[in-house]
Amino acid sequence: MKRLLFLISVLLCTEPVLGAGQGSPAAVHTHAGPGHVKLNILGRRNSRQAGVEQQTSGRGGEETEQPARGQGSSGHSMPPEVGGSVPSRAGGNGKTFKPVARDEWPSYWHKANEAYKAGHYQKATKLYSILVRSGLVNGHLYYNLGNSLIRSGRLGKAVAAYLRSRKLIPRDQDVKANLKFARKSAKDAIDPIEPSAFLKTVFFWHYGLNFREVMIAAGIFSLLFWILMILRLFRRESEALKWVMGVSLALALAFAGSLVVRIISPTRLAVVSVPVVQVKSATSPKATVLFELHEGAEARMEGEEHGWVKISLADGKRGWVREKYMELVQ
Amino acid sequence: MSARDAIASLLAPVAATLVVCTSLGAAAGIKVTAELDRNHVSLGQRAMLTVTVQGSQDAGNPDLGDMQGMQVLSAGRSTNVSIVNGSMTVVVSDRFVITPIKEGKLTIGPITVPVGGTKYSAGTLELDVSPGGNSNSAQGQGRGRAGPVQQEQVGNEGGSPVFVTARVSNNNPFQGEQVIYTFRFYRAVRVAGADLAMPEFDGFVSEDLGKQRDYQTVIKGRTYLVSEIRKALFPQEVGKVTIKAAKLTVKVAVRDRRRRRGNPFDDFFNDDFFNSPIDDFFGGTRLQTKVLSTGPVEMDVKPLPSEPRDFSGLVGDFGLKASLSKNEIKLGDSATLTLVVKGTGDVRAIPDPWRNTLDDFKVYPDKPTVRINRNGSRISGSKIFREALVPLKAGRLQVPRIYYKFFDPGAGQFKVASVGPFDINVLPSKGKEELKLTEVVSPLGGKVAVKVLGTDILPIHEGLNGLESQAVDISSLIPALFGIFLSPMVFLIVLLGRKRSRRLEEDKALRRRKSALSNAKKNLYVAARMASKGEKDKSLEMVSRTIKEYLGDMLNTGGGALTAYEADTILRELAVPGEKVKPVVGLLSELEGILYGGGTPGDSAQDAPKRALKAIKRLHRHLAKLGGKRR
Lengths: 330, 631
Hints:
The complex is a heterodimer.
Chain A: H1 2-12, E1 41-44, H2 105-117, H3 121-133, H4 139-151, H5 155-168, H6 173-185, H7 197-202, H8 204-208, H9 211-234, H10 239-264, E2 269-272, E3 276-280, E4 289-294, E5 298-305, E6 308-312, E7 318-322, E8 326-329
Chain B: H1 3-26, E1 31-36, E2 40-42, E3 47-54, E4 70-84, E5 87-100, E6 104-115, E7 118-130, E8 149-151, E9 162-168, E10 179-187, E11 191-197, E12 204-219, E13 222-235, E14 239-243, E15 247-255, H2 258-261, H3 277-282, E16 285-293, E17 297-301, E18 311-324, E19 328-330, E20 335-345, E21 361-365, E22 369-373, E23 380-391, E24 395-399, E25 402-408, E26 413-419, E27 422-427, H4 474-506, H5 508-532, H6 536-555, H7 564-573, H8 578-596, H9 604-626
Parallel strand pairs in B: 2-7, 8-12, 18-25, 19-27
Antiparallel strand pairs in B: 1-3, 3-5, 4-5, 6-7, 9-10, 10-13, 11-15, 12-13, 14-17, 15-16, 18-20, 20-23, 21-23, 22-23, 24-27, 25-26
Helix pairs in contact in B: 4-5, 5-6, 5-9, 6-8, 6-9, 7-8, 8-9
């Protein structure tokens, strides 16, 4: 039903396909270590692990947790850097975000670029984020945002921005290069959620085109096929016509298939946006800690429940994480 | 794949076509060669001479020179134009059947071919003719087809209509000596679907030798079509070696006696093969699968005589050529030494050339290039070595002699092929940096991986395309919606419309039914106008005719002669309710009474069209539902 609603929303409204993550986690530092580490599988109840999780029964005795070792609490405010497409309250700081008018977008764009080049990465991040939250959906914007975030030391959010950028401009080599760089900077030695090179080669149109391009291509080739079918009714069938029809049908089916796959089973990724996060066995702070993930780690998002997201890693490990510690790329 | 790549891939065929068109005009470089299919024949046997002109279609007739001691018969000309990777090759081949009439070593040529006013020479060829002894040499050519016909003596298989043979050119070769394995498939009948399983050639290095050859031969007065496949074998082991049998599975057409004699197990070899054209005409043949085997081939491989020092391991006949790109270079520059080892034998096995160590040079060897010629009677070819030599000091330096020691099986002894030594005058360098490679030998093997000194992200994108919305909006949805959802519907509508119009074209009754009501309406409108003008009789007649024609159209009958009684009967047969039949039939009856019974029109003429239309409309609803069910 959700997918049907999504399909209808895609067909009837101009809502961007890519949504940014919800909520803003506490301000964090990124680690700088380039070396990868093996995942630490805890597999046992570990609620008192030093520095990782603290018990603060501030809300009706419910156990809460802190995302990072020694960092600020989750209630801290955060600049509205990677907002969603729908304007909302900015990171819980109480201020209502006011979208920037379309006429002002070029001015913000130039200011953001200038700030980046001058080395004012925080400012650039803020300006790019304003454009994102004002409704501008563009792969180059997400790419620049990723750059400013990674320069600001926010690796997780940068990875998420590059992933969003890649969805919109999948053939851009700069995006691929910077995403690769960001992934290398991540601490956890886990494979990113990526299709195999074989799949990428065989279904190159699926992985090499964005949603909009696939949709247009599917429409054009389908239209061509049906026009030829109509033509076939009125004129004698020739070998050339048969070939063109066959090719256009094959292309239409290929693109339509890609479209269906994207709609039926979209790849929903979650990137850790805080230095360390605990992955638990259930949607409860008291649940067993299964393993830890570090900032920039990518996982597949399998479900959501009461502010928790169910994630799975490329090697099959599964668990629940607080949604606010993850940057969702849907 | 980027959009640029996609466009490039779409344009690639166009570009390729342009390249082909360009190279069609640019084909140049004429080469004339002559080749005999065999160098040794017996008296009575024939050899095939092929003179090939490559690079021009305007070749004249070859001049074979003074052909003493042999008869020559032209076997035709063939032209082959091939385009590979955009380059066109034109090959014109003239074939001649050479029949020696005396024994000894006969010389063919010098062979010349005039091409565009210039004579090109293919040199001379030698044919060794031994005293023959084939009793059938003068017979059996009566059924020969176009093409060369040879006389052969084959073992016991000679009498069979299909058989295979396998021979080696030398049953007692030296280790590593080239031996030609020849498989032949003889058939005097029609065959189909031949599938050859060659033996494994264990203990040999094997190379394909030329393409399959097809020719005709006469054995014991019977003409056979022969397919010949050759392989060059290089024995690797000493002692007795057996090449296993080659097996050929083939479908042979045999006369089908089952229909006539009812015996499906006729012995194949007892069948009569197409000797009767009547059988062919009436198609009294069937295909029978046969597996033909050559039998094993035994060989006794001799070891090489005691090998000398520095023996290269090569067996065959080889020559060595070398050239140096520069004899005088500056210190730090390089010169290229090119070595060409050419000959007959296992070319692939040619090892690196042997020489003393080059202390005065730094050597950058290139990957050797191997060229194999499979078109002759034996495998021959060349292996080319290139080395970039960079002198390490100034002065007069020497590249020492380079040589190969190989075994020539023809002469039965070891031989040496050598070149050099070469002198290089190395001038002192003016600059400080002495060692630099200025001459590129492509591709050199001395490349090193790029060392990554640091990593960083790539810069931001500053173009204004960063402000273009890439959200899925209505502009991208229109073609998708139309293409995916609406165009099939449009197709369906067009299809149904076309089907309907075709049906109407083909079904006259349907066409009448479909137009019945509209025709009636038009006619009744005319009748009403007549009545209003005072033409009562005409109006009533028009109404009567309209009702009859309507009924005729709906019931697919001749409506003009329909009476009220007949109409009533037909409509009741079709189970039309009485209240719908009555107004029509009643009006028709009334009109008949006025028109043909001498009644007066009175006021009925005024409202007759209106009544008729009302009655027809009521009736039409029912008749339309009946559709094609009525008679």
